[in-house]
## 1
Amino acid sequence: MLFSATLENSLSKTHVPSNREVEQILTRKLSHIAPEPDFAGLWDLNDHRLGHVSQVLSASQDTREAILTDLAQGRFREAYGIEKAGMSFAAKMSLLAQSLNEQKLYSLFASEEAAHFHFIQAVLGDPPDLSKDPFIQFLNELIISAERRPLLFIIQVVLEGWGLDHYAGMLKSCKQASFKGPLQQILSDEAAHHGSGLSLFQEDELSQSELKYTLEMMSAFLDMVRIGPVGLMHTLDSHLGGLTTAQKQAVLTEMDAVEDTTRKLNLLKGLMQKAQAKQILAELEAKSAFTLLF
Ligand SMILES: [Fe+2]
Ligand SMILES: [Fe+2]
């Protein structure tokens, strides 16, 4: 109980600075690239699957730039929440580790998540308000409430595997050279976080209650994917002055949303297969948890 209260405090804190000595130590230990991002220039419309969306193409140059800025910042806002949560996650897993070497591993991961978080902080400048971000709230809830084995599966196998795909896409299409190195570093660190989760997770070690919990949380996560690009639609809607239902449908068609969301759901299925999570996968499939909801 004390443990979850501690985690809750850890995940909800927003205060950034510490005292002068601490700041100096961090300055020495962390690399300092001040990327000065041109958010609108980081990724183009095609990189957000908007290159064929007529509502966007016919908007003014200013509106298109505002959309690109908002979407790029959105990627970093989400990454801020993920990397921040990653520090608390690694700390919890370190305390729950079953061997000293496993504890070393999670202590190293915690330091990597701190470096990732530091980079994202530098990119964004001001801390974002993520209190209404459903995915970040879900992630925080998971880190507070899950036991070690469901965490191995949901966070390391599924979410860090999913994150790898996300960061790889960001890196591949990124137009600003100064972002490539830090994104590449995050990608290779996350590959090890995911890989260790794959090797440590054994489905048959889950207790009945852990299995039940894992299925519930995975269903909740899959529901957020199955509804399609809702966040992106919300961004477009706010910049384009309100889209009708027919216009929204046209946007989804022009951006191949069905194809893209199907690819994501298949990727998630593939991650579960890689972890030999046969029962979890079978139960989720029996509940039609991978079918589209739009
Ligand atoms: Fe990370
Ligand atoms: Fe990670």
## 2
Amino acid sequence: MPNCELCGKETQLMTAIVEGTKLNVCQNCGKYGKVLATPRIAKKVETPAATQPSETIVENYAKLIREAREKQGLTQEEFAKNLNEKESIIHKLENGTYTPPITLARKLEKMLKITLVETEVELTTTSEKRKTGTLTIGDLIQLKK
Ligand SMILES: [Zn+2]
């Protein structure tokens, strides 16, 4: 085991600048100087934001529901019964005044074999936000060129 050049302790040594002098010192003595041998491990700050997929109902749900129901030869009343929903709900769905909640949309999808729910994944990460946050006026001018 090598000896610490400051306190003489036999231990694992590291190189440190202590008061302008490069010395092989122990961990304890290294505290008093600028440690060179152990590179600082850069902490990873760029953690991607939680990519929570958000579910949304397609815009033309009313048309899709009506067309699919008619294809199955069902009246709004029959369809409502099959779905275990009120006829007024079907009415509102088909004239676009009632956007179905995801659970109902899923039920409609299964029944009518259509797609009503779109899954969107948020791709924005915190690192991207950080980048735009550090843009200066000068950077923006550069980008415009
Ligand atoms: Zn020491």
